Amino acid sequence: MSDRDGSDAPEGMVHRWFLSAVRGLIQVVLSQAVNIPLFVLAVVSFALIPIGVGVFLLPPTLLALRGLANQERRWSAEWSGVAIPVPYRPEPPASANPFRRLGWLLRDPATWRDVLWSLVNVPVGLLLGLLPAALVVYGIEGVLVAPLLAEIIGYGWGPFWPLDEWGLVGTVGSIVLGGALTAAGVPLGPRFLRAHALFNRSLLSPTRGALERRVQELTETRSETVDASAAELRRIERDLHDGAQARLVALSMNIGLAEELMKYDPEAAQKLLVEAREASGTALSELRGLVRGIHPPVLAERGLEGGVRALALSLPLPVDVVIDLPGRAEAPVESAAYFAVAEILANVAKHSGARRAWIDVHHANGALKMIVGDDGLGGADPEAGSGMRGIERRLAAFDGTMAVSSPRGGPTVVTMELPCALSSPRTLPSSGTD
Fold this sequence. Notes:
Layout: H1 10-47, H2 53-80, H3 98-107, H4 109-153, H5 166-204, H6 208-264, H7 266-294, H8 297-314, E1 319-324, H9 331-352, E2 357-364, E3 367-374, H10 386-396, E4 401-405, E5 412-419
Parallel strand pairs: 1-2
Antiparallel strand pairs: 2-3, 3-5, 4-5
Helix pairs in contact: 1-2, 1-4, 1-5, 2-3, 2-4, 2-5, 4-5, 6-7, 6-10, 8-9, 9-10
């Protein structure tokens, strides 16, 4: 409920306090029942690394802590409007190896900030989580319970109160203090919740060094994207000039010549018109091909799932396809993902010598993840050719990443990620075939 919706009215303030009190109690439970066990388990797992147990126990512990930290980031944004960027480095493609996964986690500075946060949040989460509810509850207790206790103790209540008794002063003081705490606790409840969100941001957001590296990456990405866009526009212009435009010019000349010959040599004019019709069909096919290179119709009609399955069917070798997408991404993201998969599959067909390939596309943790692999010869190097570099530039424009694992002898596994949100599932046009 926003201020414009009347949150400054008494009903709105009470509603906001109630939400902050419930959410604060949730923070209390997490800080005591989850943070403490995870911190202890992380410390114990780290100590057990020399004997090998920690190699297998520490990664899932740190990933569970990372999941808890991500949940706190979401709550901070949703409950208090405090955005906390996710600072983690991308997972390497060979992270199934426990030693590689452990190294990836331990080399990430955000991991150590998560561990520190899990410890410091124990007292901070307890204090700031209890305050929204505790102030109001204690205040109400002072207003309602103190007179009852005075009656039980024997100080009396009403017009015959013995004014010279200290109990009167204490009771009145309790009522006044309780009323003040209640009046202050209702509007302060959301502020305590926001204070906890700000505390989370101080430990869970990227460091200054990480932000500087991020700015540098975005600067380089923007430059590469501008260059790639300019190159793409030049390619389209060249294809139009050398292909469809040349054919349309020739078509116009043939029609004009046929008009002149129609009076003197109808048979020759007829041949020119036949040639013009064939040239128009060829030009139309080239224009359709150019349009498919910009945004394939199957992608617009059937989404990324239909587009990827169509790509798999066009490959001259068996391809296992697993796609789990509960919705659709925005059109530019779908287009980038489609062409990235298309380029990888083209490399598989041309260079890998593979007998089989596989594609796995799914959405998890706010990112679209695409894995393309093959059982070919391996040895793929993104630095050796322009194809994979082009994919990196295409994905980088959307803050995406690509990791390649391709040892000599294979297999080759290319993992691509695009941060995005999915919309609700759309009803796709029915089709009899893929």
